[in-house]
Amino acid sequence: MKLLSTHLCTLATDHHPSVNVLFAFAAGFTVANLYYNHPILNLLAADFNVRYEQVAQIPTVMQAGYAAGLLFLCPLGDLLPRRPFVCGLVGFTATLWLGLCLTSDLGTFTAISFIVAVTTVTPQLMLPLVGDLAPPSRRAAALSIVVSGLMLGVLVARVLSGTISNFVTWRAVYWMAFALQYVIFVLLWLFMPDYPATNPGMNYFRILLDIVKMLFRHPVLVQACLAGLFCSAPFTSFWTTLTFLLADDPYNYSSLTIGLFGLIGIAGMLISPIYARTVTDRFVPHFSVLFGLTCSLLGVCLGTYTGTFTVAGPVLQALLMDFGNQTAQIANRSSIYSVEPKRRNGVNTAFMVATFCGQLIGTAAGNHIYAAAGWIGSGSASVGFISAAILVIIARGPWEEKWVGWRGGWSMIKKDKDSADGKTADKEMHGRIVPRDEEVGVDANEKVLQEVAAEEGHESPLRDENDGKESRKEGEVRETKV
C-alpha cells in the first residue's frame, strides 16, 4: 500500500480542482480502449486474414467485458482503498495491452480484448471518488469535468483511430494506447488523492446484494436508472447508424470524413461543464435532467426528419443530443450520490449497469431498425426512447419521497444551496453527516480527515496546520486582553 503512496496524494479536489482535470484525462483515454477498434474493423479483418463477421465480434466481446467489470469490480470500490485499486487496474491493463500490439492471432486478440475491457472500468471508480471529495454544493460542477472527459474519450478514440490508421498501420493506434495507459498510471500514482475505504469490513457478496436492495429503498435511484437507460439508447443508436447515412447517397463521405464527424459532438460536450457550474449547482437536479432530455429530444427530431436531405440535421443532432445527454447524466449522478454516501460505488454500479443496458439496446435496435426502415425509422425509435425518459422524470417530482407524485411542490430552486440534491440539510463527507462549517468553526473536509486519521491510528496530515491556526487565534485573544 505504501509503495503506491506519495506526499502529493494528500491533495483533495476541494482545494485542487486540477485533480478533476487529471481524472477527466484518465477517464477519457481509459474508456477509449473500448472504441479504438470501431473504425478499423475492416483493417483488422484484412490483417488477420478473416471475414468481416469474425472481427465484428471484437466490439461485442469488449462490451461484455466492460459489463462484467461494472458488475463485479466496481462494487469493490466501497470495500478497498480506491487509489491502490485504481492504480493496480490501470497498470494491469497497460501491461496486458502489449499483447494486443504484438499478437497476430485473432483468438488471442479477442481474448485479451475481453480481459482489458473488464479492467477498463477505472473511470467508474473515479466518479464516486469525485462525489466524495467535492463539496456537495459544487458536486455537479466537479462531476461535469470528469464526465466530459469520459464522453470525449468515446468520440476522440474514433477520431484518432480512423485518422492514424488512414496514414499508417492500425497497430500504431494500439501502440499509442499502450503508451497512454502508462502515462495515466504514472500521473495517478503521483497525484490521485489517497482516500480511505468507505466500508472496509463489509462482505463482497453482501455489497452485491445491497446494490439490488438499494433499488427497493430509493425511488430517486430507480428514476435515475430508468432515465439513464432510455436516454443512452439514442446516443449509441445515432453514432452507430450515422456511418451508414453518411456513407450512402446523397453524401458519400469517406471513412476519414465520417470519423472526423465525431468532432462535432465534442463541441456539445465542452459546454456541459459551464452549464453545470452556472445552472446545475443552483437548481435541483430534476431541472437539469428535464432540460437535458428536452435538448436531446429537439436534436433527435431535427436530425431524424431533416438528415436525409441536409447534413445540417445530423450536425445539430450531434450538438444538442450530446450536450443534453451529458447534462442529464451529470444531474442524475449529482442526485443519486446523496442517497447513500458510504456506498457511492454501489449506487454508481446500479446506475451504470442500467445506462450500459440502454447503450446495448440502442446499438441493437438502431442497427435492426435502420436495416428495415432506414434513417427515419431508427431516429423515430430514438424519439420514443427520449420521450419515455421524459415521462419517467415527470412522473416523480423533485421533492417527492415516494415512487410517484409531486408532493412537496413544483419549485426547482434548491432549498439548501450547500447540498447536492437541494434538500439534504447537512454536508456529506466520507459517508458521514458532517455539521455545517459555520456551526463547528472548522472546515468540514479537514475535520473528517482528522477523524479518519484517528481511526487508522496515525496523525492527520492537516493536524499541524490546524494547530498552527489555533495557536494564532489564542495569541490574538491574549493580545486583545492585554
What layout of secondary structure does this protein have?
Elements: H1 18-31, H2 41-48, H3 52-55, H4 57-72, H5 82-102, H6 106-118, H7 122-133, H8 139-167, H9 171-191, H10 204-217, H11 219-247, H12 255-260, H13 262-280, H14 285-306, H15 312-336, H16 344-394, E1 427-429, E2 432-434, H17 437-440, H18 444-456, H19 463-481
Antiparallel strand pairs: 1-2
GO molecular function, one term: transmembrane transporter activity
InterPro entries: MFS, MFS_dom, MFS_trans_sf
Membrane topology: Multi-pass membrane protein
Brief summary:
This protein is an all-alpha fold and 482 residues long. The protein has helices spanning 18-31, 41-48, 52-55, 57-72, 82-102, 106-118, 122-133, 139-167, 171-191, 204-217, 219-247, 255-260, 262-280, 285-306, 312-336, 344-394, 437-440, 444-456, 463-481, and strands at residues 427-429, 432-434. Residues 452-482 are annotated as: Disordered.
